[in-house]
From TrEMBL, chains A, B:
Domain of life: Bacteria
InterPro entries, per database record: Ald_Oxase/Xan_DH_a/b, Ald_Oxase/Xan_DH_a/b_sf, Ald_Oxase/xanthine_DH-like, AldOxase/xan_DH_MoCoBD1, AldOxase/xan_DH_MoCoBD2, AldOxase/xan_DH_Mopterin-bd_sf
Start and end residues of each Aldehyde oxidase/xanthine dehydrogenase a/b hammerhead domain: 18-133
Organism: Kitasatospora arboriphila
Keywords: Molybdenum, Oxidoreductase
Transmembrane regions: none
The protein's name: Xanthine dehydrogenase family protein molybdopterin-binding subunit
């Protein structure tokens, strides 16, 4: 019974290392056709006409669809409504109807016998477009065209979170600090691009769909509604996925086109996104412009926070609705004691790729904006930035604390144990004071070295999930749950939770993820909720199995259920190890008339559902030591460290890997990755030469420390969710380190910290110093 | 809410009539291989050697397997143990090891790229066989070779059912009657022969198997155990089936060979039985030799019954174990008041095809033996055969009655309402007295016309079954249950049961049968139990859905759950029809946080399990009027009628069709069908020229009357099971009619009543008359 907490090797790796992974592109159906999507080459235009004749006549072409072929079909809905905001006018149809609104907007679908012929045919689709003006900036472009969102620049809605009397707080403040900060446009760009295979079985009247990897049950419902099928006519099957990061697996236009074409042609249809498509078609993320104001009393205690932000949602509102805006806004106070706060975010359309939730959505932004402003405030107040944080961090005596807000309908209960204590221990652990001293020494030698830190507040685990655990008469144990294997090792984690209950090797537990036939409902893998919510459902299901096994085994062993202990997959009478029975034998007995009861499922099967009443709030700290090349503006990270309080690690090695990977992604978004556009709205990063991933040479040795000081009180596993904390604080810590290195009096202004931006900061500082 | 009881058209027919049925042979998997089984050409031999070289070298051959390749693999187990009998020595291995024991015994398996090449290669497998003596008669051959069952003629075990002091009853009797009767060897021979397709997915580590149609969950467990897989690694999928009748879908040697070869080769494997194979390989049935003794008091009341029988189980004991013997033996008293009874059946091996349960197993036999003996007794006692039955039939005042026996562990509770009343009403309805009078008149004109009747006791509905009913947010309703669609219309019946609960059209309910992924456990379709047990599970599942829907809808409508009534797929406040909500909308609400609860499955999903504590006992009467051709001995049925008390008919048209079809099969077994063997054990009926199915021209107009006077008290639907009553009484009624036509003083002696047998009876009667 020590499966939980052990860094057991990943169960997934056996098949992956032997080349037996189940990625969507490896699904080959007899007679399958290939979809190629024709996309808009311009950012904004009226469609005067689409000539598909040449494409239709091309060898191999089976069908060419345009919006006219989808008449009456609704656009892709949002899956998370936001009170007070009507997204309807901003939803994306599967194929653009009348106008195209970003480069990459799907306008036609070509179905062919061959993937290469499909590409050739797609190029023959002739678009007659009348170009229109573009809107590319959410702040300056907001309501440029109030008469019609069709020109973009429309405000979809404003998300507003407030508590306390914030204007009074500012009126009473001894010091206030105000700054504007911008976060660049980047996103999750998984190694494996998206793709889908759909196969309609006219005999069974059922569609099988491979490739949905985030919220398959939601996608099944949307597919059914759009195609006029019943949910049960659609079978979504898990595949492996080469990364997800929140952007893979949402319902995109292609998620309708692929099954629709399978249904219409009666043949299997496959679609695999190419890299350039991916970089313009899959959700972008992050781009926001912020104004933040902080009010302090004379003792440097925070009295209030005012924030306003403009979120660039791209040309349409996709499935997440306003989730990013909500999480940016509601969590702006972070882990601090702030008596009054008002934070609002305007969701604004532009003629760019629509955005979605990418690892730590909103939190990358609010942590960056608040923590960078805190360093600015420390300077202005003449106090050490570490000390300013220490003064204001929530400590043990104040926690748990109900912040007077609701997020997604759930009360915002800060369930941490002691943010201050975590920060203190964490700095001590990494020797952060030595980093700072080292940087100071380097600077005295003329090097541009700085150190920065950030305390972060994360969130995880809202919603519900279900699981089913069964033990067969052969003794085989299986768990099915609603998560997705996107590389994080969820199979291993779920197997550990089950193995713990039955005291068996983790490797003996088979795991099925998001097979909509085997498990009736599941929520998916997003928002660091799989272990918190899904894992708890798994535990509840396993406990149910064990309860029945105890009852039946007690009869078979002539004992009382309470006398039985679990040992190595058996139930034994406590103290009499020879009086035992294997769970498989108990399962076999459960199918005999003696133990089958009306109203109770036969066999050893447990169904668990866990509905989290509130989110859990993991927290941590990020530390960076950076050196700037004064000649090029290049930022080199010398040291990096993350501490993260996650309550309990089911598999520490996997948590470590997740935090590490997340940190690397954060570094990418902070220093390298940038979806830039030219003034006509043409994307400048459509290959991996232009959209720069972090590589090993870009990275320092990253230290990760998992804290298990504060088990989450809301779930029986005590877990807090660990998927996003590595990403959430990087922008802040690195910006603070660069600010320190350059000795800025202001802020870095914007992310990413590309050499050109850093050079500009260096030049501005030099001018400032010269002016003195 | 009038779906139950309506003769709605079959839902199955839409796909079947459009050529979209899902028969196993229509499953085509990319890269599939074909299995051909090499079978023994002799009835008993030692295998000196098998030379597979030529077959292996044949074009297309992928593998040739013999018993040596299955070393260590257990034989096919029985699925129904019989207390006190050890079947182990008599079980069949997938491939014969050392000896072959009947013509058709599988000795090798050839796997080829092509089905025709597979046949050719199979003919190249050279068997070196040393022929051994054969045993072909269960009664005279029993224990011919007590030293070893390998020569066949071994008594596997004896099934013995007794109550009361039967010897005292006979000692006190005023009259006793003794006779020996034999039932011939025939079986279910469905239009579609057997077949299986298995596909091993090495990526998912799962086997999909199409073609299991009777007890797929049992077969899955056996497959898993034999292959060393977990049950959950095997996905059994429903197919349509062109008839089953109890013999299709048991676990046969081929049910191991097909998935085993798929696992070993990593390629899909298909096997489709040809007709000649089918006639020697699929279970035979029925062959039994009986002695029956009846004891009467002076008022013609039955005092006791003694029976002894020898059941020919063929060369091995197959999955049913001793089920046929148990049902023959335990039910021998039939629907009569018999104070003391002892009936035993010896299960004996022979060198013939193994047998199994075929429609009305045991009941075709016991009803024939008892009812034909009753007619003999009536003659001997000088009482009218109808009157003799009336004197002895259980009447309302005596029912329900606990017969002091247990069948399959369940008490034998005769749950009928009034057997005498049924018999009286039924004769009246069909005008049976007029049939008899008509026959008498015909005989006065020199024609050999006679009338006969039989009262029958059937049984149905033991065991358990499970079902899951769900309503999606689209409003789509689905039910999954553990039955099999073998032509009887089970999809329609299950849809009706669900439609009744939700007041929706039957056609709007989708039905999934025996998909082991969608439904975790099910029992299958056999023993007239699908509607009784499975249908009740479906009803319980639907009730569970409705209970949750009521609770949630009450909140949404601002009403109390008890106020709500079901109307046309909606819940409405009683008396306020405009305050209503569709079940699909309720389902959608059930996925929202407001209604998802820890410990309760989300959505509108109900899981029902029903465990029948005892069987239900349907009953009825058969009537025949027959004319014998004095020149050829051919029996022509002039009239036939069946009345059957089934408690409640969910779909009267389907029940009618089942009884009709069953009667036709009974006529086949009584007059035409006969698996004869020559003295070396070579089968004489290996084509449909030799094994004669009844055809339209062989049949009279058959009247069927369904009685619903006595709803089964044990299940909420009140159903009794209707699948086998058409078959169970034919042997008896026809034999009695022929006996009447010929004016026999003795019995017909044996079934089937082939012309040669009938001519022999005519000649014996003539000689008898001449002797007078």
């Amino acid at each position: 019974m020590n499966a939980i907490g052990a860094s057991v090797p990943r169960l997934e790796d056996d098949r992956l290392l032997r080349g037996l992974g189940r990625f969507h592109d490896e699904i080959v159906r007899p007679g399958q056709l290939w979809l190629r999507v024709v996309r808009s080459p311009v950012a904004h235009a009226r469609i005067r006409g689409i000539d598909t004749a040449a494409a239709a006549a091309h060898p191999g072409t089976v069908a060419v669809l345009t919006a006219a072929d989808l008449a009456g079909m609704p656009p892709v809905p949002v899956r998370q409504p936001a009170p007070g905001i009507d997204f309807t006018p901003y939803l994306q149809s599967a194929l653009a109807d009348g106008h195209v609104r970003y480069v990459g907007d799907p306008v036609a679908a070509v179905l062919s016998e061959d993937p290469y012929l499909a590409e050739d045919a797609a190029e023959l689709v002739a678009l007659d477009l009348e170009e229109l003006p573009v809107s590319l900036d959410a702040r300056t472009g907001a309501d440029l065209h109030p008469e019609s969102w069709r020109g973009a620049g429309a405000t979809v809605g404003t998300v507003d979170f407030a508590y306390g009397d914030v204007d009074a707080a500012f009126a009473a403040a001894a010091h206030t600090v105000t700054t504007d900060l911008r976060v660049g446009r980047h996103s999750g760009t998984p190694l494996e691009t998206r793709g889908l295979v759909a196969d309609w079985d006219a005999r069974a009247r059922r569609m099988t769909v491979w490739g949905a990897t985030k919220v398959p049950y939601v996608n099944r419902r949307i597919t059914a509604q759009m195609l006029g099928l019943a949910e049960h006519q659609i079978h979504m099957l898990e595949t492996d996925a080469g990364g997800s990061f929140g952007i893979r697996g949402e319902f995109y236009p292609e998620d309708l086109l692929v099954p629709l074409l399978a249904l219409r042609t009666g043949r299997p249809v496959k679609w695999t996104e190419d890299r350039t498509e991916h970089l313009v078609a899959a959700n972008h993320a992050r781009e926001q412009e912020h104004r933040i104001e902080l009010a302090f009393d004379a003792e440097h205690r925070l009295l209030g926070l005012r924030g306003e932000a403009w979120m660039d949602t791209g040309a349409y509102v996709r499935t997440h609705g306003a989730v990013v805006a909500v999480l940016t806004s509601a969590m702006m106070s972070g882990p601090y004691r702030i008596p009054a706060c008002r934070s609002r975010v305007h969701v604004v359309t532009t003629n760019k790729t629509p955005v979605g939730t990418y690892r730590a959505p909103g939190r990358f932004q609010h942590n960056f904006v608040r923590e960078h402003a805190m360093d600015l405030a420390a300077d202005r107040l003449g106090v050490d930035p570490v000390e300013l944080r220490r003064i204001n961090l929530l400590h043990g005596g104040e926690l748990p604390q109900q912040r007077p807000l609701h997020i997604f309908g759930a009360p915002m209960l800060l369930d941490g144990k002691d943010h201050l204590d975590h920060f203190d221990k964490s700095r001590e652990l990494f020797g952060y004071e030595a980093w700072r001293e080292e940087a100071r020494q380097a600077r005295t030698q003329g090097r541009l070295v700085g150190a920065g830190c950030a305390v972060i507040l994360e969130k995880a685990g809202l919603g519900h999930d279900s699981a089913v655990v069964d033990i067969g008469a052969t003794g085989a144990i299986r768990v099915a749950m609603g998560g997705a294997n996107v590389g994080q090792g969820v199979e291993t984690v779920m197997a550990q939770i089950v193995a713990e209950e039955f005291d068996v090797p983790t490797g003996s537990v088979a795991v099925v993820l998001s097979d909509t036939d085997i498990l009736a409902d599941g929520s998916g893998t997003f928002a660091s909720r799989t272990t918190v919510v899904g894992g708890t459902a798994v535990k509840l299901a396993a406990e149910q199995v064990l309860a029945k096994a105890r009852r039946v085994a007690a009869v078979l062993l002539g004992a009382e259920p309470e006398q039985l202990v679990v040992h190595a997959g058996c139930l034994a009478v406590d103290g009499e190890p020879e009086r035992r029975i294997a769970l498989g034998q108990v399962a076999a007995a459960c199918y005999t008339p003696q133990f089958v009861r009306t109203g109770e499922e036969p066999g050893l099967i447990g169904r668990g559902t866990y509905a989290a009443g509130a989110m859990t709030y993991p927290y941590g700290a990020h530390y960076a030591q950076a050196e700037v090349d004064p000649g090029t503006g290049a930022v080199r990270l010398l040291r990096y460290a993350v501490s993260y309080e996650i309550g309990r690690a089911v598999n520490p090695a996997l948590v470590h890997a997740q935090i590490l990977g997340g940190t690397v992604q954060g570094i990418g978004g902070t220093l390298l990755e940038d979806f830039r556009y030219d003034e006509r709205g043409l994307p400048l990063a459509t290959t991996l030469d232009e959209y720069r991933w972090p590589r090993a040479g870009d990275l320092p040795d990253i230290q990760v420390e998992i804290f298990e000081d504060a088990p989450a009180p809301g779930n029986p596993l005590g877990v807090r969710g660990a998927g996003e904390g590595g990403t959430a604080g990087v922008g802040a810590a690195v910006a603070n380190a660069v600010r320190d290195a350059l000795g800025l009096t202001g802020t870095v202004g914007a992310l990413p910290l590309h050499p050109d931006r850093v050079m500009a900061l260096i030049r501005a500082t030099d001018e400032e110093e010269e002016a003195i």
